[in-house]
Amino acid sequence: MNLNRSLPCTPMESGANKIVSAQPSLCLCNVSLQLDGHAILGEISLHMPQTGITALIGPSGAGKSTLLRCINRLHDGWQGSIELGGQSVRETDVDSLRRQIGLIAQKPAVFPCSIRDNVIFGLPNQQRKSVSDESIRQVLEQAALWREVETRLNDDADTLSVGQQQRLCLARALMLEPSFLLLDEPTSALDPRSRDMIEHSLQSIASQIPLLWVTHDLEQAKRISERVIFICDGRLIEQADASDFFSRPERMESREFLRWNVCDCD
Ligand SMILES: Nc1ncnc2c1ncn2[C@@H]1O[C@H](COP(=O)(O)OP(=O)(O)O)[C@@H](O)[C@H]1O
Ligand SMILES: [Mg+2]
Question: Which ligand is nearest to the CA of 231?
Answer without folding.
Answer: 1
